[in-house]
Design goal:
It is built from eleven helices and nine strands. The protein is α+β, with helices and mostly antiparallel strands.
Length: 387
C-alpha cells in the first residue's frame, strides 16, 4: 500500500531526539526544590539541594531533573542522589495531551511493592503546581547505562560494541522484565486506577485502541490528518483478534531505551506514563517494532545495524518459554505498534515544524518517519522484506 507521493529517503537522526524545549533554569529549580523539601521533610531536617542538572536522555515525556539532596536524618547529615520527573511546560508543545505524574507515581510504587521488577523507589509525589510550576514526583537515582535514542543505539554504541553473548544476555533479561510484569497477579484489582472507560462487552484491547484513536484525534485537532494513520485504524478494525490474550499490566512504552542496565542486566525500568491494562502482545509488539524502527533507520543510513537482535520470533519464543503463554496475532500487534509510533511521529514532526526546525510537507503522511514500513505492513509485505 504505497502512496503516490514518495516520502523522504534521507535519514535525519535528530528527528528521533527527545522533543523537549525546556525553559526551566537549573539554579532556580534547585532553590525551589530546596524550599519544597524543607516543607516536606520533618522539622529540623535542614535540607540542601546541589548538583542540579536537566537530563538529556531518551524519551518524549516528562522532564527529568537530576539533583543531590542532603538533610539531617538519624543524627547525621546524609546525601542522596535523586531524580525529579516534572510534567512538561505547555509552551513546549508536549507530545501527549496529559501528563499525570501522580498516576505514574502510583504505578511505580505498586509495581515495586508486588514484584521483583527493578523499578526505582519513589519517595514523594507533589500535585501542587506552586512548588516547581508543574506536578512532579521524586525517586531514587540509579546508575547504569541506557541504550541511546540519539544517535540510535544500533548506529554505534556500547551495545553494538558488546559481544554477541552480552547482547544475548541483555535481550534475555529485557524479555524477562515483560514476563515478570505480565505475571503480576490480580492486575485489574491492583491497578484498577488504570482501567479506561469502555462499553459493556468491550475488551481491554478495545479500550486500548480507543485510547489511541482519541490521542490521534487530539494530535490532528487542527484539521491536518494523516490518510495513512486513518487507513491503519481501519485495518485494526477489520483484523481485531477475536479472542485477545489475558488482561495484564501493560508497560505501554516497553523498549530497551527505557531500561537502565548494569552488566547487561536491568537495574532500573523507567518511563511508566503509558502504562495501562492490555493483552501481553501490546508490550511485546512495541518491544519488537521499536527495535525494527531503528533498524530501518540504520538500513537507510547504510549502517549494519543489529538485525539479529530482538527478532520477532526470538522474542515470542523466549516469552513463551518464560511464561508458558504463547503470544498470538503478532502481525496485528506489531502493526498496532507501528501505528502508535506513527501518531507519535506525526505529533513530533508537527512540533518541529512549529519551532521552525522543519518545513511542512505537501503530503501529511510524509511527517511519519517510518511511512514506508507502515505501508508495507498494511500491504502484508513488511516482514517478508526484513526477514
Amino acid at each position: 500500500m504505497h502512496g503516490s507521493d514518495d516520502p523522504p529517503t534521507t535519514v535525519e537522526p535528530p528527528t528521533v531526539a527527545r522533543p523537549t524545549t525546556s525553559t526551566r533554569d537549573p539554579g532556580e529549580l534547585g532553590r525551589r526544590l530546596g524550599r519544597w523539601l524543607a516543607a516536606t521533610l520533618p522539622p529540623g531536617s535542614a535540607p540542601e539541594v546541589s548538583a542540579v542538572e536537566l537530563a538529556s536522555g531518551n524519551g518524549m515525556s516528562s522532564e527529568t531533573v537530576l539533583f543531590d539532596a542532603t538533610w539531617q536524618e538519624s543524627g547525621a547529615r546524609r546525601t542522596r542522589p535523586l531524580v525529579a520527573r516534572v510534567a512538561p511546560e505547555p509552551s513546549t508543545l508536549p507530545v501527549f495531551p496529559v501528563y499525570d505524574m501522580q498516576r505514574q507515581f502510583r504505578v511505580m510504587r505498586t509495581i515495586r511493592a508486588c514484584s521483583r521488577i527493578p523499578v526505582p523507589a519513589v519517595l514523594w509525589s507533589e500535585t501542587d503546581e506552586q512548588a516547581l510550576g508543574a506536578p512532579f514526583f521524586v525517586m531514587e537515582r540509579v546508575t547504569g547505562l541506557v541504550p541511546p535514542d540519539v544517535m540510535p543505539y544500533n548506529f554505534g554504541s556500547w551495545l553494538t560494541d558488546a559481544s554477541p553473548a552480552e547482547r544475548a544476555r541483555l535481550q534475555e533479561s529485557s524479555v524477562q522484565v515483560l514476563a515478570d510484569l505480565h505475571g503480576i497477579s490480580r492486575p485489574v484489582e491492583r491497578f484498577g486506577f488504570l482501567r479506561a472507560e469502555q462499553p459493556t462487552g468491550a475488551t481491554a484491547l478495545d479500550a486500548h485502541v480507543t485510547g489511541q484513536r482519541a490521542y490521534y484525534d487530539w494530535v490532528s485537532s487542527d484539521g491536518i490528518r494523516s490518510p495513512l494513520i486513518e487507513a491503519g485504524f481501519s485495518w485494526l478494525d477489520a483484523h481485531r483478534p477475536r479472542q485477545p490474550g489475558p488482561t495484564v499490566l501493560s508497560w505501554g512504552d516497553a523498549r530497551i531505551g527505557n531500561i537502565m542496565y548494569r552488566d547487561f542486566q536491568p537495574v532500573a525500568v523507567l518511563d511508566w506514563e503509558m502504562a495501562g491494562l492490555a493483552p501481553p502482545e501490546v508490550d511485546l509488539g512495541w518491544l519488537i517494532y521499536l527495535h525494527r524502527f531503528f533498524e530501518d533507520l540504520a538500513t537507510a543510513a547504510g549502517l549494519p545495524g543489529m538485525p539479529d537482535f530482538l527478532r520477532r520470533d526470538d522474542v515470542a519464543d523466549r516469552y513463551w518459554r518464560m511464561t508458558g503463554y504463547r503470544p498470538a496475532d503478532l502481525d496485528f500487534y506489531t502493526l498496532y505498534a507501528a501505528l502508535r509510533q506513527a501518531i507519535v511521529m506525526f505529533r513530533v514532526q508537527r512540533r518541529r515544524i512549529h519551532f521552525g526546525e522543519a518545513e511542512p510537507p505537501a503530503n501529511p503522511d510524509d511527517m511519519i518517519m517510518h511511512r514506508r514500513a507502515l505501508e508495507a505492513m498494511l500491504a502484508g509485505t513488511y516482514w517478508e522484506e526484513v526477514g
